[in-house]
Design a protein that fits this description.
Elements lengths: L2 H9 L7 E5 L5 H11 L4 E6 L2 E5 L15 E9 L6 H14 L3 H11 L8 E9 L6 H15 L4 E2 L6 E8 L2 E7 L3 H5 L13 H10 L7 E4 L6 H9 L4 E6 L2 H12 L9 E4 L12 E7 L12 H15 E11 L2 H10 L3 E11 L2 E10 L1
Parallel strand pairs: 5-6, 5-7, 9-10, 9-12, 10-11, 12-13
Antiparallel strand pairs: 1-3, 1-4, 2-3, 4-8, 7-8, 13-15, 14-15
Helix pairs in contact: 1-4, 3-5, 7-8
């Protein structure tokens, strides 16, 4: 893109009809859609695909960067449910749409709302994602869109890494999109999270779990296996709380949690962190409003052999410390174990169960209420 064409793109008023997309952890499409419509005034969800939410929003593109349950946000150049099945038709279609989309100028105007960085020459790269069965490969999709972008913007330079602009191409069966990425790595990784441990929870997933707990200013909120403090940090970022309590049996995890939480400027008051065993919580009975916890999956943390005893004792403690009507949001891949525990503990009512993908494996978020 020449400097004059870049100025023209920035000077035009973007049309409200431009569509956006958010990539999310698979299974969190509804949670992300709820946040988009709640946080962004005037936003309207158009559709969801596995791992993607498409929506319209009439406000400033920079507002999208405040979303917390999304991995990345994009402005769309093209979207279709009818990408041709065969290679000789699908790839030319992607090239043509990358070259001829009528939304380029409006999309670039939105992109410049989120990026203050000025460059002498625009560099870009194309990232393709595919799921489902296709007669062509991901690299061919990337090359097809790259050819279209090169034909449209002859002054731009394609590079492999650290590009000024990224064009993403998700293809899911016959659904396909071409989009410009508006966010950077800070959206999914968070600036506060400097300390990491094995099986550390993704902030976007932690944010979704916190949202599912229905946060209230009066909450005494607890993560009994807090690890590096991601769930506690995401609860602190939501808004007021009565108390924020966390604990872990690993002193190094607690050290990391203290470090991460100290970087959360929005903390209303310091979290109360404890070295404890979640099977014997030093908390008075019936005093917690909310428990949100990432339970050991039995791989990087815990074992499948040891989890039944651990989960069983933890459930007894959780039921004891939750007040009547208290809420619990638990994440685990131990489906059969959870089924047995919920059958044995009638004091907990299962209100919802959400299947999510966590680092390539199936897991579930359980929304529970203390009877």
């Amino acid at each position: 893109m020449t400097q004059s064409s870049a100025r023209r793109s920035r000077s035009r008023s973007p049309s409200p009809s431009v569509e956006y997309a958010a990539s999310v952890i698979p299974g969190l499409e509804e949670s992300a859609g709820d946040e988009i419509e709640t946080r962004l005034e005037g936003a309207r969800i158009i559709e969801t695909q596995r791992g993607w939410v498409v929506f319209q929003y009439p406000g400033q593109a920079g507002d999208l960067l405040e979303l917390r349950t999304t991995e990345d946000v994009f402005v769309l150049l093209y979207r279709s449910h009818e990408l041709p099945t065969y290679r000789k038709e699908a790839l030319p279609t992607l090239t043509r749409m990358a070259r001829s989309s009528r939304y380029w100028d409006q999309a670039l105007a939105r992109f410049h709302q989120t990026r203050a960085r000025s460059v002498k020459r625009v560099t870009y790269r194309v990232i393709a994602q595919m799921s489902g069965k296709h007669s062509y490969r991901r690299q061919e999709v990337r090359d097809a869109v790259l050819a279209g972008v090169q034909a449209r913007w002859t002054g731009w330079k394609p590079i492999e890494d650290d590009a000024h602009l990224e064009v993403w191409v998700p293809v899911i069966d016959r659904w396909a999109a071409i989009a410009i990425r508006l966010s950077d790595r800070k959206m999914r990784h968070r600036t506060y999270k400097q300390e990491h441990r094995p099986a550390s929870l993704r902030p976007t997933l932690a944010a979704a779990m916190v949202a599912l707990s229905n946060p209230r200013p009066s909450d005494r909120f607890c993560d009994p296996m807090c690890g590096t403090g991601t769930i506690l940090a995401e609860r602190a970022l939501v808004g007021p709380y009565r108390a924020l309590i966390g604990g872990d049996a690993d002193p190094e995890a607690l050290r990391a949690a203290r470090s991460n939480l100290s970087a959360v400027r929005e903390m209303r008051s310091a979290a109360s962190l404890h070295l404890w065993d979640a099977r014997s919580l030093p908390i008075r009975s019936g005093t917690l409003d909310v428990v949100v916890c990432n339970l050991p999956f039995g791989k990087q943390v815990g074992t499948h052999v040891g989890n039944p005893a651990l989960y069983g004792r933890f459930f007894e403690q959780m039921i004891r410390v939750l007040r009547p009507g208290g809420r619990a949001v638990l994440l685990t891949s131990e489906k059969e174990l959870m089924r047995q525990l919920l059958r044995d503990h009638r004091e907990l009512r299962r209100e919802r169960e959400i299947l999510v993908g966590v680092l390539g494996q199936a897991a579930r978020i359980y929304l529970l209420r203390r009877a």
